[in-house]
Amino acid sequence: MNWSTLWFLIAPPLVGGVIGYFTNDLAIKMLFRPYRPIYWFGRRLPFTPGLIPSNQDRLAKRISDTIMGSLLTPEELQNLARRLLQTERMQSAIDWLLRMALDQVQSETQDKTARILGNILQDMLGQSLPRLLRVWARQETFLEEQINHIFDQVLLEFQLSEEQAAQASQWMLEGVLPPDRIRQLIVDFLTDRNIAVIDETLRAKTSGTYWVVANLFGVRNALVRLRAHCLDEQAKSNARIAELIVALRVQRRLQEWLQNFSLQELPISTVRQLRRTLRQTIRSYLQTSGADLLQGLSSSIDWQKLANQLLLRLQSSPVVASSLGMVSSELALILERYLERDLENIVARVIPILDIDQVIIDRVNATSPKDLEVAIQGIVRNELQAIVNLGGILGFTIGLFQAGLLFLQR
Q1: What is the 3-state secondary structure (H, E, C) of 120-181?
Q2: If DSSP states are collapsed to H, E and C, what string results for the chain?
Q3: Which residue in 120, 230, 312, 394 is deepest, having the highest Cβ count within 10 Å?
């Protein structure tokens, strides 16, 4: 067998293998390339761009339909939500959010937080609460239980101690009824009419020694002289009154009376009436002046300073830090019960809002053909190379079969 005959038999399988290999490789590359259409004399050449770039919109729609139809179904999304929203995970997330919020309060934004909190407190006390108070005060039972409780538990059982009674009696004698005030009361009381009434009453209704004194001497002159002395000799009158207060031990007697005084000694009907009167007085005051009182109080408070103090207290409070875990646990349980009941409805509402299918379509369309090729090649590189190799093997086999036929014909 000469070289020409040998080459005649070897050439078909070699050429067939090369053609099969490179034809499959070219076909696979034509799936992605060229990335853009190629124009020749104003006309687009066929098979440009590649199969996938030219049908990228339809491919994105098919991928979205496949994922949403078989992978991300509502049932699978519900199962995914249940796994993500387990009680332990929700508790950890809520605890993290609460601690992050507390750290945020402690950061450099504290002044801004204090201003916001101060404005909220000012609005509540200066605007919202007065309006609510006007509405609440119209109710007949407004604060009835609270005032009755305070009256029964505090005022009814309240009794001054010895020291408190001493201070109260001293305040009454020095601030409420000093000697000069008592002298003025005496002068105001001893008018000509009052003196005449006292004199006539004593003359008509006394008996025995007092009748003799009242009718022979009378009290008119004595009372007139007492009034004149109080008016003309004010300093001496005040001194005499002060001496009488000390001599009669008025402060001591007043102290004992205050110390022994208790509302429990009053008749039950009087106590009930006093409690009713107290409640009505407070309710009437709140109806007429409660809103103005709160607004005036609100305008007199430095709310930003108060908010800063509250925030500092929250930052350093061990109760807040220790209660975060309990609060997060309770909130997680509440969310779990809510999700058990309404998870299906929530997922049904979330799917249209998230618009996952459109997100997939937009993401696929936004991916460049080159990146899409790299992504697909990265997934099925071995399979695509196997197709290329298979093309070479098939071409070589067909060429070998052809060579055999040629050999037999000769």
Answers
A1: HHHHHHHHHHHHHHHHHCCCCCCCHHHHHHHHHHHHCCCCCCHHHHHHHHHHHHHHHCCHHH
A2: CCHHHHHHHHHHHHHHHHHHHHHHHHHHHHHHCCCCCCEECCEECCCCCCHHHHCHHHHHHHHHHHHHHHHCCHHHHHHHHHHHCCHHHHHHHHHHHHHHHHHHHHCCCHHHHHHHHHHHHHHHHHHHHHHHHHHHCCCCCCCHHHHHHHHHHHHCCCCCCHHHHHHHHHHHHHHHCCHHHHHHHHHHHCCHHHHHHHHHHHHHHCCCHHHHHHHHHCCHHHHHHHHHHHHHCHHHHHHHHHHHHHHCCHHHHHHHHHHHCCHHHCCHHHHHHHHHHHHHHHHHHHHHHHHHHHHHHHHCCCHHHHHHHHHHHHHHCHHHHHHHHHHHHHHHHHHHHHHHHHHHHHHHHHHHHHCHHHHHHHHHHHCCHHHHHHHHHHHHHHHHHHHHHHHHHHHHHHHHHHHHHHHHHC
A3: 230
Question: Which tokens in the block code for residue 398?
Answer: 């067909």
Q: How far apart are CA 173 and CA 178, in angstroms?
A: 5
pLDDT averaged over 10-residue windows placed end to end, the chain, 410 residues: 67 79 76 78 77 79 77 72 70 72 59 72 76 76 77 75 86 86 89 85 72 68 85 88 88 86 77 81 79 76 75 65 68 70 71 75 80 73 72 79 73
Write the CB contacts of 303 (distance below 8 Å, at least 6 apart in sequence). 118, 119, 121, 122
- Pair of tokens at residue 267: 């008749």
CA dist., res. 87 & res. 77, Å (int): 18
